[in-house]
Amino acid sequence: MISAELKEQYYQALVAKDSEYEGLFYVGVKTTGVFCRPTCPARKPKYENCEFYETAQQALLASFRPCQRCRPLSHPNQVSDVVRILVEAVENNPEKRWKGQDFKDLSINESTARRQFKKRFGMTFVEYARARRMGLALKNIRSGRTIIDAQLSTGYESSSGFRDAFSRIMGAAPTHVDDGQVLKASWIDTRLGPMMAVADDTALYLLEFVDRRGLEREVERLRKRTRSAIVPGVTEPIRSIERELTAYFDGTLRAFHTPLFCLGTPFQKSVWEQLMAIPPGETRSYQDIAVALGKPSACRAVAQANGANQLAIVIPCHRVINASGDLGGYGGGLTRKNWLLTHEKTAYEQIR
């Protein structure tokens, strides 16, 4: 997370249109719903209306769209026609899920688009489109409002794109859902980036970093298996996990106590129970978990169950590494996994 001191510094650079800060940050303007580069020629917003991000992807996930004046995705070097055409296509239909035929319709090679976006923005085109699409839905969650039309910022041409994006990802617009079939979703800011928490009144169902690859599929699977829609809101389990996450990142929490609802097969649940038995500051290999379950040949199944965990940090799948000692995989990214393991080892030693 960007510190308050750095935010002040970035704001002064924004007001001064300081070109030395190009590429170091992007600013999201709450009143217009756009994000800009530091030297944008537009009238400068008030400090309280600014949110600062280190990458364009973070700004997109926070629901901001590229400014049409400073074109933050085209600076400092002009982008290729491929990138320009695709960025414009996403803005014309931000809730669209792109398929192979869509690239052919634009006479664009899919692998070329992937390569050029990765080189230019540090993310593939599919990741860019997903970030834009998820940003629309996450904006509603982050605002905590229950009626989609009420939280549209100025700058969106209509409410249909926002409503469709939210409905496709979360299941239904809040105005069309029976209160008896609802899970509540909330945005939680953490030291390692924002997370999405989903819960009912009794238990936490999902906790994931909002930039996790496959989050849309996780949400869709959750709402289908529970036959629920997911709408913005806060429940006691969400309040509980927010408090506990704060203590966890402060290094003062050893165990989570928020009630959990684990949606999985009996084997997956048995793996998750083993994960929660790993003490903070320690790790286990997939082989260790398989042996503990009495199924030493089930390493691959253990790895799959580990990846299917929808409760990041609380069910500590980050504590499972390869037998060689390598970190292995992690849905939230290896940088976060390494940070979590280092943090837990240090915090555990201090608590002990």
From TrEMBL:
Q: Please name the InterPro entries in this protein's record.
A: Ada-like_dom_sf, Ada_DNA_repair_Zn-bd, Bifunct_regulatory_prot_Ada, HTH_AraC, MethylDNA_cys_MeTrfase_AS, MethylDNA_cys_MeTrfase_DNA-bd, MethylDNA_cys_MeTrfase_DNAb, MGMT_N_sf
> SUPFAM superfamilies, from UniProt?
Ada DNA repair protein, N-terminal domain (N-Ada 10), Methylated DNA-protein cysteine methyltransferase domain, Methylated DNA-protein cysteine methyltransferase, C-terminal domain
Q: CDD domains, per this entry?
A: ATase (cd06445)
Domain HTH araC/xylS-type, which positions? 104-180
- Sequence intervals crossing the membrane: none
Show the catalytic activity.
Answer: a 4-O-methyl-thymidine in DNA + L-cysteinyl-[protein] = a thymidine in DNA + S-methyl-L-cysteinyl-[protein]; a 6-O-methyl-2'-deoxyguanosine in DNA + L-cysteinyl-[protein] = S-methyl-L-cysteinyl-[protein] + a 2'-deoxyguanosine in DNA
Question: Which keywords has UniProt assigned to this entry?
Answer: Activator, DNA damage, DNA repair, Methyltransferase, Transferase
Q: Which Gene3D superfamilies match?
A: DNA Methylphosphotriester Repair Domain, Homeodomain-like, Methylated DNA-protein cysteine methyltransferase domain, Winged helix-like DNA-binding domain superfamily/Winged helix DNA-binding domain
**Regions annotated as coiled coil:** none
Name of the protein this chain belongs to: Bifunctional transcriptional activator/DNA repair enzyme AdaA
